[in-house]
Amino acid sequence: MVITVIGLGLIGGSLAIDLKNRDFASKVIGVDNNRNHAGTALKRGIVDELASLEDGVDKGDLIIVATPADAALGILPGILDRCGNKVVTDMCSTKGNIATLVSGHSNRKQYVASHPMAGTEYSGPKAAFSGLFDNKTAIICDRGLSGAKAIKVVTQMYKALNMKIINMPGTEHDVHAAYVSHISHISSFVLSLTVLEKEKNEKKIFELAGGGFESTVRLAKSSADMWVPIFQQNRDNIMVVLKAYIDKLNDFEHLIASGKNDELYMLINEANKIKKILK
């Protein structure tokens, strides 16, 4: 199978590496409007050749859109216009707007809305590596709107990446993503800004930073090019989550300020129940 990967960053690059190494793809065609990214991907052997968007769609059997969410919205209709019997999927972490955009397209059945729940705080083809997706979860959204062949191909792709596959409606996906992914990044960005604003001596930050701080603030290294579009496209769900998060922050502020240690113990013990879920 010839696959075309559009967007040669961490996700697209890591996909290309493993789909080729694991014999899912016989050839990988890369598309990226960032010439430096495209050149790096070709030089590293992540892709076998580079192409324009149109040529990439025409040459590939499976078209994988691994661009930021706003870029995906801009190019998906055109990809579906010329895809014919080819299979198209995307890697975006928001699904509502995309679902609306393609809902009436004549080639909708060739498209599978999906989201591999994997990543790091780094971006670009230099960050791509083999094994990023191993033992992670891939979500296929609105399965019934895709054709049987398209579902089969995308399922086989995720199995080649050693991923667990679950199905859910796109609207439900966006709610869950806001809670388990998007709020985590906002929290990390805010913590980073708070520390940087109050602690001007960067050397002291690094000297004092322990494992807890590093793991909590790690996501603050993530790219604005990726996350601003995600926050905008999932704004309604994120606002609900932010309100709940701020309410919990206010609870901690009140209990600490008023010295209500018994209630603070109760709140922390309640939070500890996450251990039963995340082992």
Structural class: alpha/beta
User: At CATH's second level, what is the architecture of the largest domain?
Assistant: 3-Layer(aba) Sandwich
- CATH-derived topology of the largest domain: Rossmann fold
Radius of gyration based on Cα positions: 21 Å
Folded structure, characterized:
This protein has 279 residues and is an alpha/beta fold. The protein has two domains: 2-168, NAD(P)-binding Rossmann-like Domain (Rossmann fold, 3-Layer(aba) Sandwich); 173-276, Orthogonal Bundle (6-phosphogluconate dehydrogenase C-terminal fold). 54% of the residues lie in helices and 13% in strands. It contains twelve helices and eight strands. It has an eight-stranded mixed β-sheet, with helices on both faces. Strand 5, helix 5 (96-102) and strand 6 (111-117) form a beta-alpha-beta unit. The longest helix is centred in the middle third of the chain and has 29 residues, at 170-198. It is globular, with a radius of gyration of 21 Å. The mean pLDDT is 92.
Summarize the structure.
The protein has 279 residues and is an alpha/beta fold.
Q: Layout of helices and strands, plus pairs?
A:
Elements: E1 2-6, H1 10-21, E2 27-31, H2 35-43, E3 49-50, H3 53-59, E4 62-65, H4 69-82, E5 87-90, H5 96-102, E6 111-117, E7 137-141, H6 148-160, E8 164-168, H7 170-198, H8 202-208, H9 211-217, H10 224-233, H11 235-258, H12 261-271
Parallel strand pairs: 1-2, 1-4, 2-3, 4-5, 5-6, 7-8
Antiparallel strand pairs: 6-7
